[in-house]
Amino acid sequence: MKKLTFMILNLLALLLLLTACSDPKPTPFPVTEAPAATAEPTAIPVTQPPLEQVPTQIPTAVPPTNTPQPTLIPVPTSPFDSMNHMPDPSLTNKTWEWFRRDPNGNPIAEIVVPNPENYTLVFNDDGSLQAQLDCNTGNGRYATENNSRIFMELGASTLSFCNENSLDAQMTMMFGSVQTYHIEIINDELALAWTEGGPIDYFRNADSATTPPEMLGKAWQWQSLESPIMNVTVEAPEKYLIQFNEDGTVDLQADCNVLQAAYTTPANRLKIDLSPANASALLAECPDGALYELYLLALDTTTSFTLLNNNLMLFVGENGNVMRFIEAGTEVAEISEISNEPIVTPPSQPIPDTDEPTGIVTAPDGINMRTGPGTSFPRLTIVPNGTVLSILGISEDGDWWLIENPDLPGEEAWVTINFIQTSNVKDVPVIEEPPALTDYAWQWVSLTAPSETTTVSNPSAYTLQFLADGTAVIKLDCNNANGRYTIDKNAININLGATTLVACPGDSLDALYYSTLTGVTTYFFEGDDLYLELPAGGGTMKFAPIIN
To answer: Mean pLDDT in the chain?
Structure first.
């Protein structure tokens, strides 16, 4: 029986084998190469890598298209998500030149842009924008709602180093925070007012070629020439006059010389042509000490202009040189803190009869009070004319008084020695100049926390620079950021604004640097090093100066 069963099974197996061999249609096998007749996938160009390099399996779970890609740096929700863009015809399709930043009561320096043509914005109807930031260019997007609110976001941009006097970092600060704006139709000016009482940035339409009417038909007196390497105060401004006429001519008095020349204002530029063919006078030699040659040389190299607080400001050359004028018969609207021969007016009240070192402000429009002995230190406020000051010391260079803050008794501040009438100051102590955040650019060396110490292997990849106008420039390994900072005594607050979002290598410390830097609350110096501290003993960041 067993033998019979075995034979039957063998016969069935043989029958199955014969059936398989006689099948005219072979069983399909996986092909290892694409058939020649297979059409190319429409999503892959001919020049792309072979098909096998592209995943053939579709993921079972596709993330929503509106989910932001993960980055090493937290990305806040964009205000674009809640804004409906409405193109404003008075804003779009014009080239707007940034020419001034008004502090608007904030403790930052005023900015008068010497070369506005290098800092421009163009808004397109479709919500895109183009920006020129000195030697860098960038693209971005913006949204306007009801002609009263604007949000700007800078996207891809070049990251070249322009020069040490460049304002590209300050202009970058305009992006990333909601702005309100209005259009000055008369002068064709755009004002971007930062939210929460921040500064105001002023732009002018570069396509407008008209000379402002308030500039014409007036005699302007030359007050000073200010530059990074010299400051000249004009002792006899009534001898140096300029008047712009509607017919394109300009009348000049240069000490003992009176002449007429031609001028043009194409797209807010200014060109005064003092060539022999266009200047209707030969120069006479004026008395010793006259500034007529410097005056005419500066006018002949003027590049642009702006009107500011009853001042006419002419920018000379490309290095930040400024000629300041006031209308003849008016008072100076702004007093320079650096002046070899200050103009002193009688104080509104006498100096108190006391044996203590005392001073009184004699500048008609007051003087700036700062956190340190120099114009690079943040300005606290303006001390009015006639204010009596208690003098505590003098700076090492002899140019600044250390005073008791008249607004906050017990607090100290600094004022220039110019425009201060003093008594009993012969024996005041010389005060060693305190270190300043703006003295150097800084590189991150280490983070000392309660649990561990992190030593930065490549400090030059993590840098921090504080600018005198309250802005900060930060390098986070392969990313760059701009921000704003405020200080009060040894307290500091750093807010980062626009930040690039490149994924750095896996061993990068950019996320740690970002999160720690934005959490610091105090700072101090030890030797040449800067230390930033987290609250409640959370840790200390150490920075070393970058000395060129």
So the answer is: 76
pLDDT in tens, 508-522: 999 899 989 989 999
Of 333, 331, 335, 106, nearest in space to 226 by CA: 335
What span, in angstroms and rounded, lies between the C-alpha atoms of 164 and 172?
A: 16
Q: Assess whether pLDDT exceeds 70 at residue 38.
A: no
Is the pLDDT at 26 greater than 50, yes or no?
no
> Over the range 177-208, which residues count as b (16 or more CB within 10 Å of their CB) and which as e?
bebebebeeebbbbbbbbeeebbbbbbbbbeb
| Residue pLDDT, tens place only, 119-172 | 999 988 888 888 999 888 888 888 887 656 788 888 777 777 787 778 888 888
d(CA 449, CA 152): 37
DSSP 76-112: PPPGGGG------TTTSSSEEEEEEEE-TTSSS--EE
Percent of the chain with pLDDT over 90: 14
Strands 430-431 and 388-395: parallel
Domains and CATH numbers, the chain: 79-205 (2.40.128.270), 213-327 (2.40.128.270), 358-431 (2.30.30.40), 437-546 (2.40.128.270)
In angstroms, the CA 200 to CA 196 distance is 11
> Encoding tokens for residue 264?
């043009």
| The predicted structure's pLDDT at residue 3 | 53
Contacts of 347 (CB under 8 A, 6+ apart): 360, 361, 362, 385, 386, 421
Beta strand pairing call for 388-395 and 400-404: antiparallel
Token representation of residue 118: 């290098």
Instruction: Single out the residue of 208, 189, 312 nearest to residue 268, CA to CA.
Output: 208
The H helix count followed by the E strand count for the chain is 4, 35
Reduced to 3 states (helix: H, G, I; strand: E, B; else coil), residue 194 is: strand
